[in-house]
Here is the input.
Amino acid sequence: MRALIVDDEAPARAKLRRLLAAEPDVAIVGEAANGLEAIDLIRHLRPEVVFLDVQMPLLDGFGVVAAVGVEAMPCVVFVTAYDEHALRAFEVQALDYLLKPFAPERLRTIVVRLRRELARGTPPDVASRLATLLQGTGGQGYLQRILVHRDGRAVLVPVQQIDRLEAARNDVHLHARGDTYVVRGTLAELAERLDPALFMRINRSTIVRLDAIRELQPWFHGDYRVILQDGTALMWSRRYRAKSRGAFEIGRESDR
Here is the structure.
């Protein structure tokens, strides 16, 4: 059983490492001290199970799951100091968790269950259970931050700082506070994970954050020019206006 330990506290990682080392069929393939390291190790080491701390600075355990994607996540054992009331979310979704401070017997019980699940294959509804859990953790299933790589380092860009997203062949360009970041993927994929109360697709190649809009100008054939706070001019096509009904209402100019 290939296991990855993720916790921002060194003593907590040491305890898990010591207890898991006593299990003859568990191989610890790596440790991460924060959410960003966890994302990278999950993608490159492909562990079978991740012991994932929920409460970490910068990017918490739920953020790790959202960034990796529920379909790509291995089995997850959440490690948390949440109270018993908050733990019902894990229990309802039949997801394993360790409540800090946990006893060795509790960990052994979870390892036995993991052996059984891995032996018969990961249950097909694990991804849906993780997705449902995310919807109840304050993120509503939408991206709160987007992980990008720039100049050999990883950067977390809060979605509230993004003015617009533009398709560029197999990439998407994020424009945020005067900087431009490149993300692999398609605009359609990102559109599905952005909160429609905050973002709107205005044409085939552009998504804008609603609060970044300064002005809308009527144009030809039912189109609108969209002027952002930084002066960028974009086109809101009639086709996408029809799809965005309800985002806000455009009233008529008063005659007075």
Summary: The helical segments are 10-21, 35-45, 61-68, 88-92, 104-120, 126-135, 187-193, 238-243.
